Amino acid sequence: MATPTGPLHLAAAIDGAGQYAAPYYIELARLAERGTLDFVTLDDTFGPPGDGQGRLDALAVLARVAPATERIGLVPTVTTTHTEPFHVSSAVATLDWVSRGRAGWTVEVSATEAEARLVGRRPAAPAPELWAEAGEVADVSARLWDSWEDDAEIRDTATGRFIDRDKLHYVDYEGAGFRVRGPAIVPRPPQGHPVVAVAATDPVTWDTAARHADIAWIRATHPEAAGRARDELRRRAAAYGRDPAALTVLAALAVDLGDGEADSARGPLTARDGAAPLYRGGPVDLADLIAGWHDARAVDGFHITPAVPHRDLERFVNGTVALLQHRGLFRTFYPGTTLREHLGRPRPANRYALAREAAR
Q: pTM for this one?
């Protein structure tokens, strides 16, 4: 018996090379929110600026966007190669607090000598080694988020007690690349664990995505290839003891909606080396493509990157998304307040609280 098609998930990038003003990012995030998209992403890198274009810190930018939005998930790229997991976990937890439970982070690595020289912390390393390390960062971050139980804060001014020390835990993590004692300095985030995303666009990333990600996006130019990639990621997730259905797999797609509807635009996507496949056409044909892939159970949804940020995101929201909503294929309101609720994922239990209860 065929598995029923699950809810359609949609997300969008709001990147803007050379954009330094907060209103630019706020406007795009609000536009995506009007379309009830699950989340927006903002890319980041340790690399030097290219083409004379600088780049702001993605996590800091979305911390500024958070109070200007209400429901949209906020997912910055965070590179793990030249940062410590304690700092990564603290920063992402802070974003979850200021957004009231709408934070995620896209795990990324820095593999070039140029990036290594910028920081001066260590030489460049092979990609498989860096992605294994990134998995460790995701693992220790989750442990640090659990190092405070949800009710660890007492804030009793009469007795001068701020926390219940029995509900604060050392993580005592020791892996191949890190030793972290903990506990965290930030209380447990509203979501318990902010959402972890991985751009699973290369086999070197697949194990990290399968083991740690809540969301993964893939590159494919037709639904059969997308379905095979999704099945492989979920097979690996199951091999790690995870529920494979807990991994939401999206197709990455660059969209150029500048030319309008045209018969010649229907059909195959344009493959591009090192980038998401390109769709060029109109909002209606794009709605048909999204509906077709999702109905074929190839993917759980799409992560789109507008070719011209404001123009194409506006046409996507007001055209493609509106049509999908009219057809009953995409929601018209947010049923919850957190990114985990948008994805239909429960709030994780605290591992240390469970262990403490089991020991009684």
A: 0.94
